[in-house]
Specification:
114 residues; 0% helix; four-stranded antiparallel beta sheet; single chain; mainly beta
Length: 114
């Protein structure tokens, strides 16, 4: 079955960190652009980070620059999103996306609260 499965979300205090993972099954992520999006209640879906097929090029939303890092693990067919210095504004459902296949994961909830 071709799918993306996110993991690693949860409840974290302001200033804390989380590492999200997006594992692909049924196909290889190699050399495919991969995106992380997020959607907060009442807000539009927002592109958070993008990584090139080789992993050499990355793009970030202004709101997360310097705090979030996207990376890929080719042998494990996985893409990660390391999130540091989290604040309440980062609370959202985070979704992994493979645009070449128009494929989305089910999302993982990140809640930043004291």
């Amino acid at each position: 079955q071709v799918q993306l499965v996110e993991s690693g979300g949860g409840l974290v205090q302001p200033g804390g960190s989380l590492r999200l993972s997006c594992a692909a099954s049924g196909f290889t992520l190699n050399y495919s652009i991969m995106n992380w999006y997020r959607q907060a209640p009442g807000k539009e879906r927002e592109l958070v980070a993008r990584i090139s097929g080789s992993g050499a090029s990355t793009v970030y939303a202004d709101s997360v620059k310097g705090r979030f890092t996207i990376s890929r693990d080719h042998p494990k067919n996985t893409v990660h999103l390391q999130m540091n210095s989290l604040s309440a504004e980062d609370t959202a459902v985070y979704l992994c996306n493979a645009p070449s296949r128009n494929l989305w994961g089910q999302g993982t909830q990140v809640t930043v609260s004291s």
